[in-house]
Each structure stands twice: as C-alpha cells, then as structure tokens.
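sry for the spam today, last one i promise. struct tokens for design, 472 residues
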C-alpha cells in the first residue's frame, strides 16, 4: 500500500516538474532544435495574442474534454460535451510551419471516450484515431501546421453527430508566416445548432434529441453555445475608429450559417477561412465544419447586431449577438432619424371609412384606456415615445406632464388643432410643431384617457362628448 502511494507521489512529482519547468519539458518533447513553448489558449469570445516570433516553434497544446451541465437559455439546461469546458472549445493559435504536440486529456468524470479531428491537420482522420481517449486518460500526437488558415476542430468519436451536436468543436488559427495584419480587436464566435427533447425555451434539463438531429430540425441555433452568450453585459465591444476582426466558425452539426452584422459591411472576408480575401461583403456563408474571418472598421457608435441572416434563427432560435461601439457620432456617415412627419398622400383626405365599418365604442373607463393605448401606439408613440417620456429638446413628455395635468382639454386641443409655439412642460421649454391629427372624437377621448391613467399622471376620463365640444 505504502509503495503504491509512493509511486503515485513520484508520478505527481514528475508531472508537476514537467508542467512547471519549460526546460525539462523541452528535453522531454523536442526532437529537433525548435524552441518549445506552451500554447496560450482562450475561451470564447477571446482570442490569444498575435504571434510575434519570426521563426517556428514546437508548440505544446494541452486540452481537456469535459462533460458538464450548462445553461442554454433562461431556465433551460443542457449537458454540454466540450473541449476545455466551453462551447466552442479553447481557441488555439499557432504559426504556419510550427510543430504541434497535442495532449488530449479526457476528464475522469466523462461518460464517453472522446477524440479530436483538427481540420488543420494533414494526416488520417485529422488526428482522430491517434487522439482517441477514454475517460481518465491522456493521448499525445503531433502534427505540422502546413497550411495557413482558420480551421474547425471537432470530436469525431461515434456517434460523431452526437458529439458535435453536444458542443464538441472549436477553432485553430494557423497564422501565415508573415503574420496577420494588426487590428484593434479580435473576437471568437462559433455557431452551432442544438436539438432538444422539448421545444425552444421549454424549461428543465433538456436531453439531446437524435430524431430531431437527423431531421435537421433545430430547436436552438446559437453563437458560442447558448442563447444570449454575446448580449447585454456579454456584448462584444469596440471604439469608434477601430478595426474589428471576427474569427467565425460553424460547428454545425447540420446548418449552414448566413453570417451577417446588421449595420456593417465587411471590408475584408477571408473566404471560407482561407487565403483569398474578398471585399465589401454584406453576408458570408459559413459551412458546417467551416470558417470565415471578417474584418471591418467601426465608423459610428451604436449596437451592431450579429446574426445568422436565415433570420428566424436569429429572432426565434437564439442566433443573435451584439457588438457595442462607443465614441463620437459622425452625422455624415449616419445621421440618425432626421425627420418624422405625418404622411398624407394626395387624395387621402377624401377617403372615407368603408360603409359597413362600425367603430367599436368603449363602454367603460377600463375599455377607454385599453382602446386609447392602441391609438397612442399607432399615432403618438413615434414622437412622444413608448413610455411617454418624449425626447429632450424635441418632443415634450406626456409622463407626469404638468402642462397636460393642469387641463387635459389642452391635449384634446393639441390633437384636434395641432400645437405650435413655445410651451413649458415640467420646467422645460419646447417650441416645436405637433400636427393636427385626424382621429375620431372617441379615439381622441380614449387616447387622452389612456395617457391620464398612465406614467404617473393624475387619472380621470375624457368623454367623446366633451371632445365634440371642441371639434364642432
Ligand atoms: Cu466527443
């Protein structure tokens, strides 16, 4: 027994030395004169620093496969199988001509064996057979990075589709000998489709659904493994004037991505992650098991939405991320909204309601408020905003408006007759033009009643009769 423990200790000690001392590591792995270094790998959306050395190296990559529960979206959990604990797996960055010594360790808690097929490998299976690793084991194999480019890696253990569908993919960048052009920001994004027993958003720990996967009927199509992985606090960021490079992959297993950034044009696209560079591209295809590199300069501030432009995937299945750009406006490049007026095409004044149209009349104050809300959304919200907060300097607030609360009939008059000339609302002066609006007496009564009963206003109701006193 004691002997056992000693052996274990000895092993641990040796391992510790080889990890801690690069010198010793060099002796143990270098078979030629190449300098030896340990790869810096990163979790998405981060990318390891650019390679600065001018020559080649023997690069030791250590990667662990691990199966663990993660969050697909609010209230929905999924057992992800991963490289390095994240989906996609850790980003690997080496230089063309480097020799890579790959150590794949399968965590003892894994239920499955795993391996890795790197599309950057020239050799059978991309390393799959050589790296086949049972739980609690480590495999080592080596390859030379012959071709520069951005390559997908993935697990290729049977059933291959299932390992990929559970999140076992990532990217490896083989920088060309001359390096990559310097940019200000680099990010790492990989799309993937997921198949769950329950439909999109159905709560609980959702098992993988083989049938749906075979039918290519995805419940989730997401960037970086989960719905919302790059929105809100987790958005990508940049400053106006910077150049942004996105390393984009598609793990699949099934779907092809129509990769697009809303409000940007890709200045450069490294087509399919290769050497050919295309320019001025709106949307680029990323095949399953493929990649692309896109570059663009951010010229104006704002939130730029990253999507798969197969658009229901973006808004209904999760393929949506955000790039938040901060800095000064450039009104020449993008003005923002310059005008919002009432559009009354010629002849519209004489149009009349269909003769069989019967307006539904509100029969209670509650109904008046409900109907008035619709009138507000259709006619007022564009200027006065959804919460009645207005826009400073342009449209006065209707929320807690002292001007309106002092005499609600002022609101009726503004709608019927229009309103211009300086007015003071909550201590602020406005001098704009509100056009008269063609609404029925009932609609006017309802919308003012809606406003009076919302956003901290004083309450009360306006009747259609009292409106007719002004309109007649
Ligand atoms: Cu696997």
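last one done:
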């Amino acid at each position: 027994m004691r002997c056992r423990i000693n052996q274990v200790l000895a092993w641990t000690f040796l391992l510790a030395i080889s990890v801690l001392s690069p010198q010793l590591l060099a002796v143990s792995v270098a078979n030629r004169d190449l300098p030896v270094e340990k790869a810096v790998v990163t979790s998405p959306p981060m990318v390891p620093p650019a390679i600065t050395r001018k020559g080649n190296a023997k690069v030791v990559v250590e990667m662990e496969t691990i199966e663990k529960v993660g969050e697909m979206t609010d209230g929905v959990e999924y057992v992800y199988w991963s490289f390095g604990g994240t989906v996609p797996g850790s980003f690997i960055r080496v230089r063309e001509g480097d020799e890579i010594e790959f150590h794949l360790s399968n965590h003892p808690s894994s239920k499955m064996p795993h391996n890795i097929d790197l599309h950057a490998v020239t050799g059978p299976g991309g390393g799959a057979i050589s790296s086949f690793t049972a739980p609690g084991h480590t495999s080592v194999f080596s390859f030379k990075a012959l071709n520069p480019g951005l390559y997908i890696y993935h697990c290729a253990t049977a059933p291959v589709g299932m390992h990929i569908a559970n999140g076992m993919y990532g990217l490896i960048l083989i920088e060309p000998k001359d390096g990559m052009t310097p940019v200000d920001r680099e990010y790492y994004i990989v799309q993937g489709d997921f198949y769950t027993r329950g439909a999109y958003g159905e709560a609980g720990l959702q098992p993988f659904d083989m049938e749906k996967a075979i039918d290519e009927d995805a419940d989730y199509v997401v960037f970086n493994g989960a719905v919302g992985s790059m929105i809100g606090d987790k958005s990508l960021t940049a400053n106006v004037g910077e150049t942004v490079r996105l390393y984009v992959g598609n793990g699949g297993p099934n779907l092809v991505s129509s990769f697009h950034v809303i409000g940007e044009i890709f200045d450069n696209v490294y087509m399919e992650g290769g050497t050919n560079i295309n320019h001025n591209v709106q949307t680029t295809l990323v095949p399953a098991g493929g990649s692309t590199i896109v570059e663009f300069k951010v010229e104006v501030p704002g939130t730029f939405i990253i999507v798969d432009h197969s658009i229901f995937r973006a808004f209904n299945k999760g393929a949506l991320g955000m790039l938040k750009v901060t800095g000064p406006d450039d009104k020449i490049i993008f003005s923002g909204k310059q005008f919002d007026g009432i559009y009354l095409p010629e002849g519209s004044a004489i149009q009349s309601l269909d003769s069989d149209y019967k307006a539904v009349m509100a029969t209670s104050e509650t109904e008046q408020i409900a109907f008035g809300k619709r009138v507000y959304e259709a006619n007022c919200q564009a200027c006065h905003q959804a919460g009645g907060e207005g826009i400073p300097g342009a449209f006065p607030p209707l929320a807690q408006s002292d001007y309106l609360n002092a005499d609600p009939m002022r609101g009726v008059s503004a709608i019927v007759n229009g309103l211009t000339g300086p007015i003071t609302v909550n201590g602020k002066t406005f001098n704009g033009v509100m056009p008269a609006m063609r609404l029925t007496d009932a609609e006017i009564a309802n919308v003012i009643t809606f406003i009076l009963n919302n956003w901290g206003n004083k309450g009360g109701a306006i009747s259609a009769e009292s409106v007719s006193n002004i309109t007649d």
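Confidence is low (pLDDT under 50) at residues 1-30, 350-357. ok im logging off now
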